[in-house]
């Protein structure tokens, strides 16, 4: 049911999947010019309302109040629901990009507080079970001290598959995130991981697999060092092509015929 609720009665939800907010000023300008194009999703809590879907829009509207364009009496169209946590998660995932660790934090909460399985969450949001599981791992395994850094990095940050590798760096004693190892991994990624042109990483993986299949084969003395050097290069090491191996008779003035 849609209700017109004064902006001053709306509070952000602590359960919202999104923890990282960007471009609020641009969104505020759009809302000021065009109005709110989509209802907020809220749940009633006493005399106030908790925004479960639309916290980014709520921030933008509060900015309009600070800028003296609106007042807290401004009526906002809201869909009132009994429990909007899943609705918020679905809307954020489908409409706006939520960073993986924020998504994962919501999944952790749904598992630990609501008792949902990864499969149940996946069906609720229209994603695969692996989608949920990977982000759940990222939220549990990412060093909290890296989150502000990843947020500032923006589009250059590691993708989900790369983050999944990063969070495997854990402390052997506590089994929690190993901050120093994860920080060093991120530093290496930022200095080397984006230097390859688009498409070359996938191509490199293909050739690496092909070369790995040849790794244990016997090559001529001239070819083998080159193959090994290329394999190391695809693993991220510096490319150093060795001098060709020389046959013993190369040192002779008259090689055998």
Question: What's this model, at a glance?
Answer:
The chain is an alpha/beta fold and 257 residues long. It contains eleven helices and five strands; from the N terminus they run ββαββαβααααααααα.
Give me the number of helical elements.
Answer: 11
Using the 3D structure, state the CATH architecture of the largest domain: Alpha-Beta Complex
Distance from first to last alpha carbon: 94 Å
Widest sheet: strand ordering: 1-5-3-4-2
Question: Measured on Cα atoms, how large is the radius of gyration?
Answer: 27 Å
CATH class descriptor name of the largest domain = Alpha Beta
Number of strands: 5
Tally of structural domains = 3
Judged by helices, strands and strand pairing, the structural class is: alpha/beta
Major pleated sheet = 5 strands, mixed
CATH fold topology of the largest domain: Conserved hypothetical protein from pyrococcus furiosus pfu- 392566-001, ParB domain
What portion of residues belong to β-strands? 5-15%
Shape: elongated
- Show unreliable segments: 194-204, 247-253
The residue fraction in helices comes out at: 40-55%
Using brief descriptors, characterize the structure shown:
11 helices, 5 strands, 257 residues, single chain, 5-stranded mixed β-sheet, alpha/beta, Conserved hypothetical protein from pyrococcus furiosus pfu- 392566-001, ParB domain
Give the helices and strands, then pairings.
Layout: E1 2-6, E2 10-12, H1 24-34, E3 40-45, E4 48-53, H2 55-66, E5 75-80, H3 85-95, H4 100-112, H5 118-125, H6 129-141, H7 147-153, H8 160-166, H9 179-192, H10 200-214, H11 224-234
Helix pairs in contact: 1-2, 4-6, 5-6, 6-8, 10-11
